[in-house]
Amino acid sequence: MSTSSSVCVDVFAIGEHETKLVEPEESVTPKPLLIFTPLEAGEYPVLILLHGHLLNNSFYSQLSHQIASHGFVLVVPQLYSVAGCDATKELENVTDITNWLPEGLQKLLPSQVNANLTKLGLAGHSRGGKVAFALALNKVKTDLKLKFSLLIGIDPVDGLVKGIQTTPKVLTYIPHSFNIGMPVMVIGSGLGEVQKNPLFPACAPKGVNHEEFYNECCKPACYFVAKDYGHLDMLDDETKGIKGKATHCLCKNGKSREPMRRFVGGVVVAFLKAYFGEDFSYLIDIKDNEGKPVELQKVDFLV
User: Fold this and answer.
1) Residue 34: partners with Cβ closer than 8 Å, 6 or more residues away
2) 224-266: per-residue pLDDT in tens?
3) What is the mean pLDDT of residues 186-212?
4) Residue 6, in any domain of the structure
5) Residue 155: active-site member
6) Does the structure show a pLDDT above 60 at 3?
7) Active-site residue among 65, 231, 279, 285?
8) Per-residue pLDDT reduced to its tens digit, 125-147
């Protein structure tokens, strides 16, 4: 296991790889999706990133380009446009997308780029985080043919939609009860559990948010909470349309999105480098050193 990187790399900045957005025709993919890929010749691990409740996958473009620029291929599907309380169909959709990767992904990448599906990660934001955990925990029986190597929850919420519990329920409220069998990282927002105004509930309420997800994780796991940033602050600076405008109105936000987005991108890159590249120096640096784009409210490691 390497604990010191040979090259000084700022994981919070754009990496050394030029990136490209590939938008395949919907007829050739199980669900509409965006692919963010390096352009330099090489073999790269793959990360599936699931969007949050009622959000567009395009809202994660700046975050995805940042991660891809450090040497990763990102697959970012659009799982639905409108969704109710039952997320079961989303688990089935993610399974279909994952099973499609061996046959379909390589055909859409630049000819000099190879996807390494033996290093496959799953990440999700908000409701997408819940779906990612539910799939990893086999909450719904699916015909998943590939094995994920790691799991990332970006401000995950096993929450309530207008007071009704969403299904399948993920949290057990039993410490270290998640028998996932792979490394896990949970990223939280300090303002996610704060109401923006009395008319709207908090976007990541206490009791169903990142804190409880991490409490139920087993080793190895790590946990970062950004103090003064909100549930949607990792999205693009500009999010268009009615949904895009709503992202600025419904949740308590920080002063700007850029610091939180750079932080989320950076810790994701550090985690991927640790468990795909066996270089833990980046995670250790984030834990121990200054220079982070946000102030951390909480840091913890289960090793």
Assistant:
1) 21, 22, 23, 57, 58, 61, 64, 74, 75, 76, 77
2) 999 999 999 999 999 999 999 999 999 999 999 999 999 999 9
3) 94
4) no
5) yes
6) no
7) 231
8) 999 999 999 999 999 999 999 99
- Measure the CA–CA gap between 44 and 117, rounded to whole angstroms: 9
Of all residues in the chain, what percent are helix, strand and coil, respectively (each to 5)? 30, 25, 50
**Can you tell me whether residue 266 is helix, strand or coil?**
helix
Please name which of 128, 131, 134 lies closest in space to residue 59, comparing C-alpha atoms.
128
List the catalytic residue out of 69, 125, 155, 236: 155
Q: Token pair for residue 188?
A: 């939280």
Query: What is the Cα–Cα distance from 257 to 279, expressed in whole angstroms?
Result: 28
CATH code for position 127: 3.40.50.1820
Q: Tell me the C-alpha distance between 104 and 185, whole Å.
A: 28
Counting the structural domains of the chain, the total is 1
* Residue 237 to residue 230: CA distance in whole angstroms: 14
227 lies in a domain?
Answer: yes
User: Region 268-281: what's the mean pLDDT?
Assistant: 97
List the domain range (segments joined by +) for residue 43: 19-302
**Integer Cα distance of 221 and 186 in angstroms:** 8
Active-site position among 61, 126, 149, 189: 126
- Interhelix angle 61-68/258-277, nearest 10 degrees: 40
SS3 165: strand
Q: SS3 for 47-75, per residue? A: EEEECCCCCCHHHHHHHHHHHHCCCCEEE
Does a structural domain hold residue 11?
no
For residues 82 and 62, what is the distance between their CA atoms, to the nearest angstrom?
23
Range 277-287 average pLDDT: 93
Whether 8 is in a domain gets the answer no
